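In response to the reviewer comment on reproducibility (Comment 2.3), we provide here a single inverse folding case reported in full, input and output, so that an independent group could reproduce the run without further information from us. The structure tokens appear first.
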């Protein structure tokens, strides 16, 4: 994630891998000690060197940097799935899914050249996009969707501090793997997450 700090980038890749392991495998069925061991093992494996580079470097090469929103979402999945610590409400996840899909529909078809309008350019210091995000964040806060408001604020703050290699706000809000994760995950009983089958 944070290109100037390799350790933080490695930890971001670990969060991504642990979250996807939690999404795809029934880790919540394991005892707590086994879940902690899996998380520790994944993190350790990603930090080990492979051909003079850490393994997380190759993971980043395949998936790219995660958006800040994605890292917050992945953290919530890890905490909910493995430690029964709910950060999202069920209806908050529905809102997150709708906002993410709407943003993806606004960004990707236009950015890929389907029309003359390039929505990706809006991410470069566009006041209207920031105002729209501020309004959505205020709405989330008033609806007591505090975690959703927090992750949107974190994305805008990280963009203003230029913590990623990109200077485009869209890259702090969305990435393709995050969109897939939002579509696939649903809260199950007792705050566990699962992929509907």
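Designed residues, in position order:
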């Amino acid at each position: 994630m944070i290109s100037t700090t390799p350790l933080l980038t490695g930890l971001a890749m670990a969060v991504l891998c642990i979250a996807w392991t939690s999404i795809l495998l029934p880790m919540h069925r394991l005892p707590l000690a086994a879940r902690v061991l899996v998380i520790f093992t994944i993190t350790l494996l990603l930090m080990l060197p492979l051909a003079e580079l850490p393994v997380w470097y190759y993971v980043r090469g395949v998936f790219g940097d995660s958006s800040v929103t994605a890292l917050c979402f992945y953290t919530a999945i890890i905490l909910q799935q493995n430690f029964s610590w709910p950060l999202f409400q069920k209806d908050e996840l529905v809102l997150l899914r709708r906002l993410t899909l709407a943003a993806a529909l606004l960004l990707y078809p236009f950015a890929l050249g389907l029309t003359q309008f390039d929505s990706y350019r809006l991410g470069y210091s566009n006041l209207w996009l920031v105002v729209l995000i501020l309004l959505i964040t205020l709405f989330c806060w008033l609806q007591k969707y505090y975690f959703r408001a927090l992750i949107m604020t974190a994305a805008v703050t990280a963009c203003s501090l230029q913590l990623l290699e990109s200077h485009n706000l869209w890259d702090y809000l969305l990435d393709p793997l995050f969109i897939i994760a939002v579509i696939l995950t649903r809260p199950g009983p007792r705050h566990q997450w699962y992929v509907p089958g």
